[in-house]
Design a protein that fits this description.
Elements (H helix, E strand, L loop, with lengths): L4 H49 L5 H11 L3 E6 L2 E6 L7 E6 L5 H13 L5 E6 L8 E7 L1 H53 L15 H56 L4 H29 L8 E4 H15 L5 E6 L5 E4 L1 H22 L3 E9 L3 E8 L6 H5 L16 H12 L3 E8 L2 E9 L7
Parallel strand pairs: 3-4, 7-9
Antiparallel strand pairs: 1-2, 1-5, 4-5, 6-8, 9-10, 10-12, 11-12
């Protein structure tokens, strides 16, 4: 009970209501004391009027009048004359005088609290204004014991009533909190638990119903989370199935390509000039295809294999990429440009970097061809003290906003229609394996530029 939200709210409500009642209790007791003293003054005035009506009152009747008024004596001032109307023996000297005429709330509360905690029997003088303007003032002397007992009795009744009000209020708030907050929260938790147990079950996806703004926002946030997570789980399952299928295809394709390599020897020995010129490129392409199949098989088991860092001439690799792409657009108005310092050597995995640059150039070529307009693709390489920079720039139509949002996300960052979006995702992973970064440097109506940054330094170990 104490560990539940409604239980703790119940206890806090009781405590806060009691605190509020205590704040009400103090002025209430002060007001009760004021009314008590004013009532004594009023009774004393009535008793004095009886005496004024008949000067011949015996001692027994005078004592009875004082007893009914609850005072020891009565002094009435009329016409600037102070007159002792009723009197009886006072058991002890007067210790305090209270003037009820124009007393402030602070004074009344202070006097009441002092009276409440003072257990001694004292005699006090009380001064007030007569009712109905029956004189200038009236004063009485009285004991404090009965006053204190009456104040304690009143205070106990107030506290008891406050406790009852607190309990009833807390119980009603308890029921309200359970209906408005606790039950909707439990419903949200129930949906979360059901979804955790069976995320593929559509019945466990929450339907926002709450009328409370904060709870409705929580339900809508949970709905969005469940929807995105369900889609991610489905995508993960499909990727796992696709990975298995790709691994099988890559295995068989590797065997086919290995057999194809055996025929390249005869092609290389051909005396046909065209065959002689194209045979080395065919051999290189088949070799890279075999390596790609082997890398795919390795990826299906774990992840992209770690790069084998060696130093190689980046210009030769870029020239090879561009030569292959030129063959694909021999009949299209598309030009290629290279801006690479002669003899520039970089440290990277040549096969993986070939895949990255080839993918970027191929994407650029496909974008320009799809636009139906002439264009140019330029590959430039530079270096600084910290890194080597490879930039692939084209004059194509630029990337659409949707492609920019998930540019390096598999199956979501496809640039061209029908694309899977795997090329840039794999390229980004390969560059990260070198400790570098692949980023979109520019894209607008004038073209697109991708930048690869490969660090020169070694990883520092602290």
């Amino acid at each position: 009970m104490l560990n539940t939200l409604s239980g703790r709210f119940l206890i806090l409500t009781v405590i806060f209501v009691m605190l509020a009642e205590v704040l009400i209790f103090v002025p209430s007791v002060a007001r009760y004391r004021e009314d008590y003293l004013l009532l004594r003054l009023e009774r004393a005035q009535i008793a004095s009027l009886a005496l004024l009506a008949d000067d011949m009152i015996d001692m027994d009747l005078e004592e009875e009048l004082l007893k009914n008024a609850g005072v020891y004596n009565v002094v009435l001032r009329r016409d600037e004359m102070r007159q002792l109307i009723l009197s009886s023996p006072i058991p002890e000297p007067i210790s305090e005088t209270y003037d009820m005429r124009g007393a402030t709330a602070g004074v009344l509360i202070k006097d009441a609290m002092m009276q409440l905690f003072d257990r001694s029997e004292r005699v006090v003088r009380v001064i007030g204004a007569p009712v109905q303007d029956a004189g200038l003032l009236i004063e009485v002397t009285m004991g404090t014991q009965d006053l204190r007992a009456a104040m304690i009795d009143y205070g106990v009744r107030v506290l008891a009533l406050s406790a009852v009000i607190s309990i009833v209020t807390a119980f009603l708030l308890f029921l309200a909190v359970r209906a408005i907050l606790v039950r909707p929260i439990k419903s949200v938790v129930s949906y979360m638990q059901s979804y955790s147990a069976a995320p593929e079950d559509a019945r466990s996806v929450i339907t926002p119903r709450s009328g409370v703004t904060e709870l409705r926002e929580a339900e809508e946030a949970l709905l969005k989370l469940q929807t995105e997570l369900t889609a991610a789980l489905k995508q993960k399952e499909r990727l796992a199935q696709l990975g298995g299928a790709v691994a099988k295809v890559s295995h068989d394709l590797r065997n086919i390509l290995t057999s194809a390599q055996l025929f390249t020897d005869r092609i290389e020995s051909s005396e046909d000039p065209l065959v002689t010129r194209l045979a080395p490129k065919l051999v290189n392409s088949i070799t890279r295809a075999v390596n790609l199949c082997e890398g795919t098989l390795a990826f299906g088991k774990a992840e992209e294999p770690a790069p084998t860092l060696t130093r190689f001439a980046i210009g030769e690799m870029v020239a090879d990429v561009i030569a292959s792409e030129r063959l694909a657009v021999e009949d299209y108005d598309l030009s290629f440009a290279e801006d690479i310092p002669a003899g520039l050597v970089v440290r990277a995995d040549p096969e993986q970097m070939y895949r990255v640059v080839s993918n970027l150039v191929r994407n650029a070529r496909q974008a320009i061809v799809a636009s139906g307009k002439p264009g140019e693709i330029a590959v430039s390489v530079g270096e600084s003290e910290e890194c080597w920079m490879i930039v692939v720039r084209d004059t194509g139509p630029g990337l659409p906003p949707k492609a920019q949002e998930h540019l390096f996300t598999p199956f979501q960052g496809g640039i061209r229609k029908g694309g899977t979006g795997l090329g840039l995702a794999i390229s980004s992973e390969l560059v990260r394996g070198h400790g570098g970064v692949l980023k979109l440097a520019q894209t607008d109506a004038t073209g697109t530029a991708f930048e690869i940054c490969l660090p020169k330094g070694e990883v520092s170990i602290k």
